[in-house]
Amino acid sequence: MPRDLDTIRVRTLFLSDLHLGTKGSQAEALLDFLKYYDAEMIYLVGDIVDGWRLKSGWYWPQSHNDVVQKLLRKVRKGSSLIYVPGNHDEFLRDYVGINLGGIELAEHAIHETADGKRYLVIHGDQFDLVVRHARWLALLGDWAYTAALFVNTYLNIARRKLGLTYWSLSAWAKLKVKNAVNFISRFEELLAAEARRQEVDGVICGHIHHAAMHENLGVSYVNTGDWVESCTVVVEHFDGTLELIRWSEASRKSLPGPSPEIAVSIEKPVALDGRAA
Ligand SMILES: [Mn+2]
């Protein structure tokens, strides 16, 4: 496949929570990232287009269009694209299993890395209700957990049909600052447990806008973060290693390849610690 000299090719890209259609979406930064990176396979891990917000007021500037065009262009040039909807684009869940011009829609997916590890790829909103009521549900047992997952899905479909906004777990957690840490770890535990239940080596998710990559829970927990605040993405290199990238002016300037920006910004320090472990 022909490519530009300064394009970085990776095996896989995992992106989530772009929230295109909202003012908060950092579409320009994402466009910049997509200029530098090309992948054999791209996973969109939910909340790509914010259907809930679009309904209450159309906001769709050119840059948001450009992101969609850029992704479609990568598909035309040979990248595979799997779109796993989240809660903000759950209208697409009605179409899972179909293939739209090279884009596969799936409720969740299993990704196998180059070194043979298997990951569950899922947005994660399915666990909102369980995260909030973990203590009660633990007391009530397995059936309550299963019921909560079920109720969570149908509650949100009902809210959508009633024209209500999506109840946001991350907004809720931010309001209850004291609980935020708690809530992140509960979310991580639930997703790790789901990975174990599906007998895979790890999980790659989004939803809570908190990028992370660790092995503290017996399986790999990977959260791609978002393109509203943190501008984070997970890439898989050709040897199967995963890397969490925080995209910023600094990370872009540290890349090899001719770029006029480098010449004028030599004195600026390059923040390598922007890349979280
Ligand atoms: Mn979400």
Spell out the blueprint of helices and strands.
Blueprint: E1 8-15, H1 27-36, E2 37-44, H2 51-55, H3 62-76, E3 80-83, E4 99-100, E5 103-105, E6 109-112, E7 118-121, H4 128-132, H5 134-140, H6 142-161, H7 169-175, H8 177-197, E8 202-205, E9 212-214, E10 220-223, E11 232-236, E12 242-246, H9 249-253, H10 260-264
Parallel strand pairs: 1-2, 2-3, 3-5, 7-8, 8-10
Antiparallel strand pairs: 1-11, 4-5, 6-7, 9-10, 11-12
The structure holds manganese (II) ion.
Residues 46-47, 86-88, 123, 125, 207 line the site of manganese (II) ion (MN).
Organism: Microvirga vignae
Protein name: Serine/threonine protein phosphatase
InterPro entries: Calcineurin-like_PHP, LpxH-like, Metallo-depent_PP-like
Radius of gyration, Cα only, in angstroms?
19 Å
How many β-strand runs? 12
The CATH homologous superfamily name of one domain equals Metallo-dependent phosphatases
**Would you tell me the overall average pLDDT?**
82
Organism: Microvirga vignae
Protein name: Serine/threonine protein phosphatase
GO molecular function: metal ion binding; UDP-2,3-diacylglucosamine hydrolase activity
Keywords: Cell inner membrane, Cell membrane, Manganese, Membrane, Metal-binding
Explain this structure.
With 277 residues, the protein is an alpha/beta fold. It has a domain at 8-123 and 202-274: Metallo-dependent phosphatases (Purple Acid Phosphatase, chain A, domain 2). Helices cover 36% and strands 19% of the residues. It contains 10 helices and 12 strands. The protein has helices at residues 27-36, 51-55, 62-76, 128-132, 134-140, 142-161, 169-175, 177-197, 249-253, 260-264, and strands at residues 8-15, 37-44, 80-83, 99-100, 103-105, 109-112, 118-121, 202-205, 212-214, 220-223, 232-236, 242-246. The chain has a 7-stranded mixed beta sheet with strand order 4-5-3-2-1-11-12. A hairpin with a 5-residue loop joins strand 6 and strand 7 (118-121). Helix 1 (27-36) packs parallel to helix 3 (62-76). It starts with 7 loop residues before the first strand and ends in a 13-residue tail after the last helix. The structure holds manganese (II) ion (MN).
